[in-house]
Design brief:
It is a single chain. The protein has two domains: about 1-175, 3-Layer(aba) Sandwich (Rossmann fold); about 185-280, Pantoate--beta-alanine Ligase, Chain: A,domain 2. With about 280 residues, the chain is of the alpha/beta class. It has helices spanning about 5-20, 35-45, 65-70, 75-85, 95-100, 115-120, 125-140, 150-165, 195-200, 200-215, 220-230, and strands at about 1-5, 25-30, 50-55, 90, 145, 170-175, 235-245, 260-270, 275-280.
């Protein structure tokens, strides 16, 4: 495994693969890697001749400076982990390398990027599109792997790929969870052991709502989830939206879409830590 820090080094490391028309897998990450990331890397290694993993905490997708400052960073552990997983190239650039000058490009894909996270984190998805498009141009991957925990992000990236006509296959990968059901996230490192157990209620309540939803309306299901989680000390729901899984438009009735997903963001603990999760009602 090689670790490169500049675009020039990255292009050099990939030259043989490109010249030989070999398949290249890309796993974009912000580091602080866990088993969720590992599942993406393992899949890429199994499906491609070369796997590139980017490790870069992208400042343009943070609308909260404290969140950017507090985001966990474990570069040495990340590289050791990636080598054990069989990654071929780690791209770990500096902010100056990625943004030698301000990126003034704007991306807009409503309603996909305008609801849920988009409505509450101004500029977040624009920043995601800035960094992901750069990675796609630099790596020119055959496939790119994203975790389904970031359900909305995958929809936005798909829209960007269609818009820019980038020849890459987007590969969503199932959510990986802790034994208690909590979706794996780099932000989990910010939780105390007690808070981790409390946060497990997010998935528990969502799972219970699958049965409840069979005989109740969308509004009743929504309220059941929100009220159940808000009743738990140290948890506060920021939003819970039940949407068309393709367009991400909110729906009023279960018959409004063939693919229905519930997306949630919950604050946990004294800090608090912002956690996201989702569940599929209809597929």
């Amino acid at each position: 495994m090689v670790i490169v820090k500049t675009v020039k080094e990255l292009e050099s490391a990939l030259a043989a693969a490109h010249n030989g028309h070999e398949s290249i897998g890309l796993v974009p990450t912000m580091g602080a890697l866990h088993e969720g990331h590992a599942s993406l890397v393992r899949r890429s290694v199994s499906e491609n001749a070369v796997t590139v993993v980017s490790v870069f905490v992208n400042p343009t997708q943070f609308n909260d400076k404290n969140d950017l400052t507090n985001y966990p960073r474990t570069p040495e552990a990340d590289c050791a982990f990636l080598e054990s997983l069989g990654a071929d190239i780690v791209f770990a650039p500096t902010v100056e390398e990625v943004y030698p000058e301000p990126d003034t490009r704007t991306f807009s894909y409503p309603p996909t990027d305008a609801v849920m996270e988009g409505a509450r984190r101004p500029g977040h998805f624009n920043g995601v599109c800035q960094i992901v498009s750069k990675l796609f141009y630099w790596v020119a991957p055959t496939r790119a792997y994203f975790g389904e925990k970031d359900f909305q992000q995958i929809a936005v990236v798909r829209a960007m790929v269609d818009d820019l006509k980038i020849p890459v296959e987007i590969c969503p990968c199932p959510i990986v969870r802790e034994a208690n059901g909590l979706a794996l996230s780099s932000r989990n490192a910010l939780l105390t052991p007690t808070e981790r157990e409390t946060a497990a209620s997010i998935h528990k309540v969502l799972s219970e709502s699958l049965t409840f939803a069979k005989e109740h309306t969308i509004q009743e299901t929504h309220d059941r989830v929100v009220n159940a989680l808000n009743a738990i000390p140290e948890l506060e729901v920021e939003y819970y939206e039940i949407v068309d899984g393709h367009s991400l438009r909110a729906i009023a009735d279960w018959s409004d879409a063939p693919y229905v997903v519930g997306c949630i963001t919950v604050y946990c603990g004294a800090r608090p830590v912002r956690l996201i999760d989702n569940i599929t009602y209809k597929a």
